[in-house]
Write a structure and sequence with these properties.
Blueprint (H helix, E strand, L loop, with lengths): L6 E7 L5 H16 L4 E7 L10 H9 L14 H4 L4 E4 L2 H10 L7 E3 H17 L15 H17 L23 H24 L12
Parallel strand pairs: 1-2, 1-3, 3-4
Helix pairs in contact: 1-2, 1-7, 5-7
């Protein structure tokens, strides 16, 4: 029998050289520690600087948090890239709209990364309050952690969306990650300050619900 496919996550921004590469590489680094081989994180841009490496300050941020910025090349978002993706995390609400213009079937699988993180925080708080958590991903599939992980994550968008009404920000801009392209280093730091907590929340949820044989994430 073939091994279950990894959970496929796609991060999306505009040029695919500043924001989405940072999210891609840091999510991949953290999720590799949760379950090696269990996740495949990629990125693309709605108006990508095709073939360009990530911007130097973005690469520095990735390195600082334990990710690998090497061998990156920007890609244009296409319906083909979306095919087979389990979860799309965009950097702004505008990017979410552009994903849905390409493929409306992603409506229930596409979130801005900040809103998705807030939803996972609510799920984690509810689990802690009830002194339990959602069934561990490794509790089924005859002990196959990859299969259990796949099932858990494919059901996660619906569970997250069910608590969206509890996570609405006072200002819709709080759903977005600022674009630092061609701006001062301070704007890259603002990007980092907005993006890092969202990545932490996603990795925390992954750790709390890791399959029985998964290991815990470290860096973020």
């Amino acid at each position: 029998m073939d091994s279950p496919a990894p959970v496929r996550i796609l991060t999306v921004c505009t040029g695919n050289i500043c924001r989405s590469p940072v999210a891609e590489r840091l999510l991949q680094a953290g999720l590799n520690q949760v379950l090696p081989g269990g996740f495949e994180v990629a990125s693309a841009g709605t108006r990508a600087m095709v073939g360009d490496p990530m911007q130097p300050i973005s690469a520095d941020i990735v390195s600082t948090f334990g990710g690998d910025p090497e061998n990156f090349a920007a890609r244009q978002l296409t319906p083909k890239i979306l095919r087979g993706v389990d979860l799309v995390l965009t950097m702004t609400s505008g990017h979410r709209g552009e994903v849905l213009q390409l493929d409306a079937s992603f409506l229930k699988r596409t979130f801005t990364i900040r809103e998705f993180a807030r939803m996972l925080d609510v799920l984690d708080e509810r689990a802690a309050a009830s002194e339990s958590k959602e069934p561990a991903a490794g509790a089924s599939h005859d002990g196959d952690p990859l299969a259990a992980n796949q099932t858990f994550w494919r059901g996660l968008p619906a569970r997250a969306a069910a608590v969206r009404h509890l996570t609405l920000p006072a200002d819709s801009s709080e759903n977005d990650i600022i674009d630092p392209y061609r701006r001062a280093p301070e704007v890259y730091r603002q990007m980092e300050d907005e993006l890092a907590p969202a990545i932490v929340s996603i990795l925390r949820h992954a750790r709390l619900n890791a399959p029985a044989r998964g290991t815990r994430a470290g860096s973020l």
